[in-house]
Amino acid sequence: MRILVVEDDKDLNRQLVEALNDAGYVTDTAFDGEEGHFLGDTEPYDAAILDLGLPQMDGLSVLEAWRRDGRTMPVLILTARDRWSDKVAGIDAGADDYVAKPFHMEEVLARVRALLRRASGHASSELTCGPIVLDTRTSKVTMDGRAVKLTSHEFRLLSYLMHNPDKVITRTELVEHIYDQDFDRDSNTIEVFVGRLRKKIGADAIETVRGLGYRLTASGSDAG
Ligand code: CA
Fold first, then answer.
1. Which residues lie below 8 Å from residue 12, measured CB to CB, with a gap of 6+?
2. Does any domain span residue 196?
3. Which residues contact 57 (CB under 8 A, 6 or more apart)?
4. From residue 141, how far is each of 46, 67, 119, 120, 154 by CA, in Å?
5. Structural domains counted in the chain
6. In angstroms, what is the span from residue 61 Cα to ligand 1's centroid?
């Protein structure tokens, strides 16, 4: 899952990015409103974290512009403490949730997890697909109750598929959601990662849809 972080405080931006990366997300960052608006308008993010107090273009205007342009990704706004009016204005402008500064990173991560699972129609923080369970709180994967060890690339790939089960996902879409903007993207490597994942979670779990892409199915067998 790929997340945009728009925060002009360099330290805070870095802390957010580190925490998100540690949790298995890829991130792009912007340090002012204009850059943030541009990225959110042109790149497909699974969620955005948006500070309201930003140079060039304030966060509220960024959010309003995104929503006007039909950008629907979940947005978590960062507000100043005790500014209840900012929270109201932010939510009315299309924010899905807020965290007041100063915050505990764990709270941001929990809210991001909730936004991502709600956006993909999941109620539980554990994503389940047949015998495979991905715990979004710990970023751990089990199969039939046994731990499955994944590389960060494999985890991101599986995480995106598990957030979007039973849908055909193109290689392009996968590339856009498991790599950050600066990564040297090559959709051919997706095939390699899918091959490695299949060795770990079972060859049938990820179906190849000829000419279209991949689909995660609960069965590979009769369960679905
Ligand atoms: Ca700020």
1. none
2. yes
3. 32, 33, 34, 36, 37
4. 20, 34, 21, 18, 11
5. 2
6. 14
End of a domain among 119, 152, 182? Answer: 119
Cis status of the peptide bond prior to 102, with omega within 30 of 0: yes
Residuewise pLDDT in 10s, the chain (224 residues)? 999 999 999 999 999 999 999 999 999 999 999 999 999 999 999 999 999 999 999 999 999 999 999 999 999 999 987 789 999 999 999 999 999 999 999 999 999 999 999 998 888 999 999 999 999 999 999 999 999 999 999 999 999 999 999 999 999 999 999 998 888 777 778 999 999 999 999 988 999 999 899 999 886 544 43
Ligand 1 midpoint to CA 8 (Å): 5
Domain hosting 201: range is 126-216
Do the Cβ atoms of 28 and 43 come closer than 8 Å? yes
Asked if residue 222 is part of any domain, the answer here is no
CA of 97 to the centre of ligand 1 (A): 17
Name the domain boundary from 119, 137, 172. Answer: 119
Residue 151 alpha carbon to ligand 1 centre in Å: 34
Q: Check whether residue 107 and residue 144 sit in a common domain.
A: no
CA 36 to centroid of ligand 1, rounded, Å: 12
Same domain, 10 and 104: yes
Q: Does one domain contain both 193 and 144?
A: yes
